[in-house]
Structure formats: C-alpha cells, structure tokens
Amino acid sequence: MNFTPGYVDAMSYDLTTLAGYLQRHTNPDLVMILLGDHQPPALVTGQGASWDVPVHVITSRTSIRERLLARGFRPGFTPDRPSLARMHALLPMLIEAFGDPE
Asked: Is pTM beyond 0.90 here?
C-alpha cells in the first residue's frame, strides 16, 4: 500500500490553504506559528524516520525574524537536518524572540 501520494496531496492542500489565508488576511503586525504535530506514517517516510516535527514562524516583525534567525531558525518551509532543538527548548526560544526590543 502506498500512502505517499495521498500524504503529499494533503500537505499540498494544507499549504495552499495557508497561502490563501495569508493573501486574504494581510497584517503589518503578523505573527503566526505553525507547529507540526507528528511525523508522516512509516509507509510514507520509511522505517526509522525521525520523530522531529517542523515549527514555522511566519512574521512581518523584523525584530522577531532576526532573533529567530540568530537562534538558528532558517528561512523557508523545507526543514533541514539536524533539527535545531528538542520540543522542550522551543518555548524559551520563542519567549526570547518575542521579548522587548532593545
């Protein structure tokens, strides 16, 4: 059984929906956090795939973007390896990024 085409279609639908939302709801003070909730099934990724999930921060705030890039976040939607951190380390990174500008 090959679940890959259906999974790719579902992800394409999700990203198209997100793009449509962002086009319709422009905001000069935009901050949106997209958090993956699980990896694809092994029938899509293969055995032994990582349990890492992507975290995306979409923002029009330059100060937030610069702080996240300084912490190791990368531009774009394609996750890189190795992952930046474990999930428990995400909250302190976000709190720091969203802190008061100095």
From this structure: no
